[in-house]
Amino acid sequence: MPISRTIREQVTGQLRDEVVGGQLAPGSVLREAELAARFGVSRGPIRDAFLQLSNEGYLAYQPNRGVTVRHPPDQADREFIAALRRQIEGHVTARGVPSIDDSSLEDIRSLLVDLQIACNRGDTAAVRRCDLAFHEAILTACGGQSLIPAWKQLCSRMAFSYERLSGYKDVYTEHEKIFRDLESRDADALREGLRANII
Questions:
Q1: Global confidence as pTM
Q2: What is the pLDDT of residues 98-111, one digit of tens each?
């Protein structure tokens, strides 16, 4: 049975998807009153969403401008951020892969199916959401919960782009390989798969 989300969670999720999907362009000014009217809610959930998405790194408060959509980092910063993310995922999986259990693998397999569905639909926001859920589940299964908050900050700043790939089929194929390496407990192959995926 699906868990119903609060109004705040629904608003936050929708705004996050719109930032990721490009409907809200970098530098766009977001106004509480306009969004409250659009979503048919009070300003409270909008304010809460602004706070959460600012903490996650998607939005920024600027004096005299209010809340705006953050700009992606420049190429040099993006490469540095990607390197940090690779270090976190490589460190956690190297330590945790040998002890990963079958129940966790099944959960990750289910998220891989979700990613495949999102890729087949060509839904950018859903692909990103499923991509993050897949990687987060691997970190969790490998015992890396304490590093997930820092990891999430890095992910939000990367503003994922799949331009290096020819299409969403390639996105799924990369993640399928990561899963196969995880399933076989091949830590070296998994590290290389993650390194190739996180750029």
A1: 0.86
A2: 999 999 999 999 99
